[in-house]
Amino acid sequence: MAITLEETISRQVHATPLSWILSRHTFWVFMAAVAACIALTLATDTFATERNIFNVTRNFAFVGIIALGMTAVIITGGIDLSVGSVVVLSAMITGMTMAGGGSIWLAIPLALAGSLAVGLFNGLMIAYIGVPPFVVTLGTLSVARSLAMVLSDNKMVYQFGPDHELLLALGGGSTFGIPHPVFALAILGILTGLAFRWTRLGRHIFAVGGNEHAATLTGIPVKRVKILVYMFAALTAGITGILEVGWLGGVTTNLGQGMELNVIAAAVIGGANLAGGVGTAFGAIVGAALIEVIRNSLILLGISTFWQGTFVGSFIIIAVLFDRLRASRTNE
Amino acid sequence: MTVLELQGVSKSFGAIQALSDVSLKIEPGEVVGLMGDNGAGKSTLVKIVAGNFPPTKGTLSIADRQVSFHRPSDARAAGIEIVYQELALCDNLTAAANVFLGRELMRSFGPIRILDYKTMYERAGKLFAELKSETRPRDLVRRMSGGQRQAVAIARTRLSDARIVLMDEPTAAISIRQVEEVLSLIRRLRDHGIAVALVSHRMPDVFAVADRVVVLRRGEKVADKPTAKSSPEEITGLITGAITTA
Ligand SMILES: Nc1ncnc2c1ncn2[C@@H]1O[C@H](COP(=O)(O)OP(=O)(O)OP(=O)(O)O)[C@@H](O)[C@H]1O
Ligand SMILES: [Mg+2]
């Protein structure tokens, strides 16, 4: 009996920090993204230009911010297809409020409230009525975009009233050479990562995805947890909507169309398991980076953009296949 | 004083009558064996006491006061601890996280409250040692053996000062040595004046620790007598229906 209680308590699953890092899915995705960047720098003289890097990081930030919310949803074993439509709804509420002469300080709370309302609806239907997440959020995907069309009469909005410049600076500007959406991504990423690991809610999110029945039996407020993750996903989409108006300098009702797919791909590539119970904030960000670099490489290498859907779709399927493979290996 | 009293408790799931008109009393420091065939209604009874769902009819009293539980935390607050038959574990979390599931320990970090990993690991480790289980607090439950999982579920009941502990087949998946540990834990609980209801299909376990044995058959209570005045043969007959009344 050589092992003392202290040793048992402190026994780590991995012997060294290096073996821990090498066992992380996120680490390998991160290396893949780095490798892709290096390859592109060498293969093209357009990738490593300041202009291109600036665009890539900003695009990646938009997908990454929503991937954080999506990861929370996926960890609980759910899915949110409505995020792309929430982006346009939030953007349109911002645009219409400001075009009507409202200040940006009115527009932002309104846009976020509209987004949260969609998330609350998703969450209530899923938690209390038991409608499958796929069905509810497919419904709100349609509803939210349609509301944005009704709101704007399907016109483009590009005049944002008295705070026009402020809005453009918020989404399109940069500080210390770093685009503002990247700051938003960094802040949200850190907060989400801390919440996952250090808060009771974070722990409960993982418990619900790991075994919902057990979570219910042990008295975890499962319904509340579910509602909160869908509201969080909608909030991240709402924030992205506001930033995107500022970046584009205008909104049309096709903004964010099909974005849910990129976001889900980013989350899944980042290690979130669609079966629930697994996922990290850092993984979501790294996944978004990899997706964006690949998308950018297609453009720079002169491959038709029509191929993008094929790549993103295949990524989702391949990532899920890897999960299956790993699961079957650990079960043996 | 009676710790737990059920009066005329019935429970139906749609057309299935899982429990009909069951009355039962448990005194402090008493160990009651709850036996019955598969589907007799044992787990249903446990879950009603645990606050997982309310009875269709009948009432529940704790310490002579009528209660109605709306959620598991209500039952826990009343001093009831449960080992569920399905163990209620999350495979993706560590042993310690599972022990503290739903009542995580927190500590203050400036103005915010964060999970207190250190204390949870320490306390979980001590509880596993007390159960003489080889379970390590930081290991994922996914990689654990049946016995280790059961230890995690049992360790939960030691987190607070319970009045009554209900164990739904706590020895189903564990080794003979660990069965002994669970039985001696039950005796320790009894010595502290804690009442224990032990659901089990294992006759030797029940006769080793229980003061009284209650038999359910198709949702009805068909026997309730001191173990000293009964025998494994009689109980077997009552469970199967070969004997109709005790
Ligand atoms: N949540 C539920 N919904 C519907 N029926 C249920 C539910 N829980 C239990 N039942 C039914 O109630 C009856 C009693 O089940 P219960 O789980 O209480 O039996 P048990 O005595 O614990 O059996 P076992 O020894 O197999 O664990 C069974 O017919 C079961 O199918
Ligand atoms: Mg049972």
Number of helices of chain B: 8
Helix content of chain B: 25-40%
Strand content of chain A: under 5%
The helix fraction of chain A, in percent, is: over 70%
- The count of DSSP E runs of length 2 or more, i.e. the number of strands of chain A, is 2
- Largest sheet properties of chain B: 6 strands, mixed
Annotated CATH homologous superfamily of chain B: P-loop containing nucleotide triphosphate hydrolases
What is the straight-line distance between the termini of chain A?
30 Å
Give structural notes.
The complex is a heterodimer of chains A (332) and B (246). Chain A has 332 residues and is an all-alpha fold. Chain A has one domain (30-40, 60-330): Orthogonal Bundle (ABC transporter involved in vitamin B12 uptake, BtuC). In chain A, 74% of the residues lie in helices and 1% in strands. Chain A contains 15 helices and 2 strands. In chain A, helix 3 (25-43) packs parallel to helix 14 (281-300) and helix 4 runs parallel beside helix 9. In chain B, the strands form 3 sheets. A 6-stranded mixed β-sheet of chain B has the order 6-9-10-3-11-12, with helices on both faces. In chain B, strands 2-1-4-5 form a 4-stranded antiparallel β-sheet, with helices on one face. A two-stranded antiparallel sheet of chain B has the order 7-8. Chain B has 246 residues and is of the alpha/beta class. In chain B, a hairpin with a 2-residue loop joins strand 4 (57-62) and strand 5. Chain A binds chain B through residues 5, 8-13, 197-200, 203, 206-207, 209-211, 213-220, 277-278, 330, and chain B through 50, 52, 71-73, 76, 82, 84, 86-93, 97, 101-104, 106, 109, 113-115, 121-122, 124-126, 128-129, 136-140, 142-143, 156. The complex binds adenosine-5'-triphosphate (ATP) and magnesium ion (MG). The site of adenosine-5'-triphosphate has 12 residues of chain B, from strand 2 and helix 1.
